[in-house]
Write a structure and sequence with these properties.
The termini are far apart. This protein has a 4-stranded antiparallel beta sheet with strand order 1-8-3-6. Strands 2-7-4-5 form a 4-stranded antiparallel beta sheet. It is globular, with a radius of gyration of 16 Å. Helix 3 packs across helix 4. The chain is an alpha+beta fold. The chain contains 4 helices and 8 strands.
């Protein structure tokens, strides 16, 4: 019998992990609820960890001195936000704001990094998942930049 809550057991972040691996990761997670307008992360936050989004809608944004908050991407349930905790200097690279009531599991960054160091097979799976998140963020940022500056060229 799994000790992983049913609501997160099928999250895409855990796909491909053995039940034991998923349980070890989720043992470091806490369930959190955010209301619309709550910040889940601020740019520069140390050790932001990752959030496995279960429900709600989340904005990934940067703050522009000229334009204020600029939306980079909107994240939905079954997506993951937060990858910068895995690489030095372990600081958040975006503001992450709940657009509506959002339920997510927060993975502790230090504990998860230690787990990945201890179990390299699991570490590889976590790193691969987060590399997918990085790739998605880069694509979203590129498309947003093209959208913002299309009229310049």
């Amino acid at each position: 019998m799994s000790s992983i809550p049913d609501e997160v057991a099928s999250h895409s972040f855990l796909e491909g992990m053995t039940p034991a691996q998923a349980e070890r990761v989720m043992a470091l997670a806490t369930r959190e609820v955010f209301e619309a307008g709550d910040h889940m992360m601020h740019v520069g936050d140390p050790e932001p960890g990752a959030y496995l989004i279960l429900s709600g809608l989340v904005a990934l944004q940067v703050n522009s001195p000229a334009r204020g908050p600029v939306l980079v991407e909107t994240l939905l349930p079954n997506e993951t936000v937060g990858w910068s905790w895995l690489v030095y200097p372990h600081r958040s690279t975006f503001d992450v704001v709940a657009l509506e009531t959002t339920v997510a599991y927060h993975l502790d960054s230090r504990g998860t990094r230690a787990l990945c160091e201890e179990d390299h097979d699991l570490g590889f799976l976590v790193a691969r998942r987060l590399l997918g998140v990085v790739s998605q963020r880069l694509a979203a940022t590129r498309f947003r930049l093209l959208d913002l500056y299309a009229d310049v060229y």
